[in-house]
TrEMBL record:
Pfam families: DDE_Tnp_1. Residues 1-52 are annotated as: Disordered. One of its GO terms (molecular function) is DNA binding. This is Transposase, IS4 family protein. GO terms for biological process: DNA transposition. Transmembrane segments: none annotated. It comes from the Bacteria.
């Protein structure tokens, strides 16, 4: 599970650990500074995988780009096939925009 800094509380981490869910949640700057200030008594910092967090950010930005389209956001399409066609069109236009900007849309890292 990946999450924002807002979800880095001890209770959230313990609940995830209790369910054996690996979490990728960055620590807030104040908690990191406090841990460093306390030295050895500050404890070990929680594990953080920056590559997983970067992927989460890319997925979130992809959803945000699609939210700007009014049709799927309001779900005007009543049939599933029409809704899927709208999503496919949005994906195609997003891909064309990336190509015209000089980005390789296949590069997801």
């Amino acid at each position: 599970m990946t999450g924002d800094k807002a979800y880095s509380s001890r209770a959230n981490r313990e609940a995830l650990r209790g369910k054996r869910i690996r979490a990728t949640i960055p620590g807030p700057d104040d908690q990191i500074a406090d841990r460093k200030r306390r030295g050895r008594r500050g404890g070990r910092p929680p594990a953080f995988d920056s590559v997983d967090y970067r992927r989460r950010n890319q997925v979130e930005r992809g959803f945000n780009r699609r939210k700007h389209w009014r049709g799927p956001a309001t779900r005007f399409d009543k049939l599933g096939i029409n809704h899927q066609a709208t999503l496919d069109l949005i994906e195609l236009l997003d891909w064309l925009r990336a190509v015209s900007d000089g980005h390789d849309p296949r590069d997801r890292t």
